[in-house]
Design goal:
The protein is an alpha+beta fold. The protein has helices at residues 44-52, 126-143, 154-164, 171-179, 185-209, 223-234, 237-245, 348-353, 377-380; strands at residues 9-12, 18-22, 25-29, 37-40, 69-78, 94-97, 100-101, 103-108, 113-120, 252-258, 261-269, 279-282, 299-301, 306-308, 320-325, 330-334, 344-345, 360-363, 370-373. The chain has three domains: 8-42 and 127-246, no CATH class; 70-125 and 249-282, Immunoglobulin-like, CATH 2.60.40; 299-381, no CATH class. A five-stranded antiparallel beta sheet has the order 16-15-18-19-17. Strands 1-2-3-4 form a four-stranded antiparallel beta sheet. Strands 8-9-5-12 form a four-stranded mixed beta sheet, with no helix packed on it.
Length: 386
């Protein structure tokens, strides 16, 4: 059965004989297009609406909820200088599981403890989108939504058609239509066999979608609807379809975007964890000082007349070097000619007195003494410090 188009429905057997119902009528055809029959009915859906007595298709009652879990995840987020990450961070921390974002529920800025509520697999996951599609495009389409832009749902259309179309939707009427063609004896036999298959298609359609009458089991619902309802008592119709189709989606990566830091996979999950462990994560904040690892001092080679920093002091592929301040902190600075530093110093106070209140004093430089530098420059440039 093809339910991919909301204005028509078709059913096909294993030999590719088919029956199509649309707004213009009922159409039977073979895989070779021989002995096709079309019963044309003007404004068929509107006529069936009047005959059915339905004012409009009922709205769905109690849509099945997605089989989705959630879990609480704690992250301890610190910036490059070891300070707890606050809500004011540029590029707000976003924790995701697969394609679905978690929601932060509590933040302790003093410790950097962020608590998130994470869905699994999440409404944006392929599995959840699949379940929504199955529910909307199959279940609701078949049993509750208006069909073909008229009021009755498809089951009501099938029920009304079955009750009112006996005079022309039967093997005798279909044969009579085809017998008007110039046929040989062999072709008449083929017509008889074809019409029999058309009748089987019509009967299957009725049995699947027409609603039961009073006094019959499952009255008021079709055989197909009864089957799906019974299936859902023990399993999940949407779940079994979509779990199979999206089995390859697992595991889902837990990822984080915060500040200038992106972590594609903190961990990977095949299911919602019962007792998720917290994670300690360093996030680079471009508004903070460019704290770095491997704070170093320069070394002078008198024989060669050169001055340089250790190779591991270079910060990524940049012109920033991880040096040491007069206070002993490891902070990255932009490497430049000595004449380009704004002032000499022995402490941070000297930089402030020279008019550079936010600057720090770099010691162990190649400039013969301390120099004042902007401790935010490398951080603001987005140079990776962690």
């Amino acid at each position: 059965m093809d339910v991919s188009n909301r204005s028509r429905v078709s059913i096909m057997d294993s030999q590719k004989n088919s029956m199509l119902i649309d707004a213009n009528g009922i159409h039977f055809s073979t895989n070779t297009c021989a002995f096709d029959v079309s019963i044309t009915i003007q404004d068929m859906y509107d006529q069936l609406e009047s005959l059915s007595g339905e004012v409009c298709a009922k709205s769905i009652s109690g849509k099945r909820s997605m089989e989705e879990s959630s879990f609480e995840q704690v992250l301890f987020l610190k910036d490059q200088c070891g300070n707890g990450i606050k809500r004011a961070l540029r590029t707000y921390p976003t924790l995701s599981v697969g394609d679905s974002d978690c929601m932060d529920t509590e933040v302790d800025s003093s410790t950097g403890k962020w608590t998130f509520l994470c869905p699994f697999p999440g409404s944006d996951s392929g599995n959840s989108r699949c379940r929504t599609s199955v529910n909307d495009d199959i279940v609701r389409f078949l049993f509750t939504d208006p069909f073909g832009e008229a009021c009755p749902d498809l089951s009501t259309v099938a029920t009304t058609l079955a009750a009112t179309a006996q005079d022309f939707l039967n093997e005798h009427s279909l044969k009579e239509e085809l017998y008007q063609l110039p046929l040989s004896g062999t072709q008449k036999s083929q017509v008889d066999a074809t019409v029999k298959k058309y009748g089987q298609l019509w009967n299957v359609f009725k049995q699947a979608l027409a609603k039961g009458t009073a006094g019959t089991p499952g009255q008021g619902s079709s055989t197909l609807e009864q089957y799906i309802n019974m299936y859902n008592k023990y399993r999940s119709f949407e779940g079994d379809i979509c779990n199979d189709l999206h089995a390859g989606d697992l595991p889902l990566n837990m990822s984080l975007r915060a500040g200038v830091t992106t972590i594609d996979s903190i961990t990977s999950l095949k299911a919602a964890p019962e007792n998720p462990k917290p994670f300690n994560i360093t996030v680079q904040d471009s508004n903070q000082i460019a704290c770095c690892k491997n704070g170093s001092k320069s070394s002078l080679n008198k024989a060669r007349g050169t001055c340089s920093y250790p190779e591991n002091a270079t910060v990524a592929d940049s012109d920033c070097v991880c040096g040491q301040t007069s206070g002993g902190d490891a902070v990255a600075f932009e490497y430049m000619e000595c004449a380009n530093f704004v002032s000499q110093c022995t402490s941070d106070d000297d930089c402030a007195k020279a008019g550079y209140k936010t600057y720090k004093c770099l010691t162990g430089s190649c400039c013969g003494g301390g120099v004042c530098f902007d401790p935010y420059a490398c951080s603001q440039k987005g140079v990776p410090l962690i």
